[in-house]
Amino acid sequence: MAGGGVLLVGLTVVLGAVFAATGAYLLIVAPLIGLLVAWEVYRALHRLCSTGSRRAEATAFAGILLLVALAILGVSFGGFPLLLPAILLSLAAALTPRPASPARRP
Question: Scanning 22, 28, 65, 83, which has the fewest C-beta atoms within 10 Å of its C-beta?
């Protein structure tokens, strides 16, 4: 699911590139920043799933909030389509399994 969020941001970058080719070059700014943020959220969710790192959890949460902020504040720069990947990544973060704590392992 997190990979789907990164893919959606990639498609947003392609859409921004099409707009940039037609003269609206500023519409690619927010999607390019969003792609980097979404990729880092994906990596953080992967680390969270495999190691249970609290830092990875905080990174993923901050990245999702940044994507939402980019979508809302970057409307003039092509950021609105980033809202759907942010929702998808937040859903992936909610569903990401965490390793069992050492106290609960048999």
Answer: 22
